[in-house]
Specification:
The strands form two sheets. Strands 3-2-4-5 form a four-stranded mixed β-sheet, with helices on one face. A two-stranded parallel ribbon has the order 1-6. Helix 7 (175-187) links the parallel strand 4 (164-169) and strand 5 (194-195). The chain has a domain at 53-199. It is extended, with a radius of gyration of 26 Å. It is built from eight helices and six strands; from the N terminus they run H-E-E-E-H-H-H-H-H-E-H-E-E-H. By secondary structure, the chain is an alpha/beta fold. The longest helix has 17 residues, at 16-32.
């Protein structure tokens, strides 16, 4: 009896459902994503040959502009939430939920504690118009800079060993202002700090230049 040959047919996969899911996911992320707010000041950092990159997490950053204004920033919304709740309780700031959320989801903060409630209730443009971007006071008599450091550390939830303290100062920042900041860290027994700089090529004849050349020819 002869064999019956079954006709070969190509497999057809209907991709309509998968395309629908892909576009739904794309639409969701486009509508739900919130971009990081812009920093309140522009800083032109000095250059160095250090190639260590600033990490994305576990960073406490102090930005200092050319006029010496200091702004505080820290990653992690849960950490920022604990921090602002503790500050609100300790300093009787009278912040409501909306103002605390503004801190949690915002970028850098740079104003005295007495103005923090008004600062957080305004948009970035309104803050600048009202002159509230005064910077965090750094004088030792006031002690506000030290408070930001202390409460930032307390909000780390046992992850203090990974925390990196970074200073991003403008190239034209007066040195006495930087010294005040360094003295405050010293009083808090924090000796290891990271200075944020732009990368430049190592000068010829230096050990760093020789290391770069060896790495390039590997």
């Amino acid at each position: 009896m002869p064999k019956v040959k079954m006709p070969r047919k190509s497999t057809l996969v209907d991709m309509t459902a998968m395309c629908d899911v892909a576009f739904l996911l794309l639409t969701f992320f486009m509508l739900a994503t919130k971009f990081k707010p812009d920093e309140p000041v522009t800083v032109v950092t000095p250059s160095s040959i250090n190639t260590t990159l600033l990490p994305d997490s576990d960073v406490m950053l102090f930005t200092v502009d050319k006029d010496g204004r200091v702004f505080f920033s820290m990653d992690g919304q849960s950490k920022r939430k604990k921090m602002i709740e503790d500050l609100n309780s300790q300093y009787k700031l009278g912040l409501d939920d909306k103002e605390m959320k503004s801190f949690v989801t915002g970028a850098s903060v740079g104003t005295p504690f007495k103005d923090l409630k008004n600062y957080l209730s305004m948009s970035e443009a309104e803050r600048k118009a009202a002159g509230l971007d005064k910077g965090i006071p750094t004088d030792s008599a006031n002690g506000e800079l030290g408070a930001w450091i202390e409460y930032g550390i307390a909000a780390q939830e046992g992850n203090v060993t990974k925390l990196k303290y970074c200073i991003k100062a403008d190239n034209a920042t007066p040195y006495p202002k930087i010294k005040e900041i360094l003295d405050t860290f010293k009083k808090k027994h924090i000796q290891k700090l990271n200075l944020v700089t732009n990368l430049k090529a190592a000068p010829q004849g230096t050990a760093a230049y020789d290391e770069e050349q060896k790495a390039a020819h590997k």
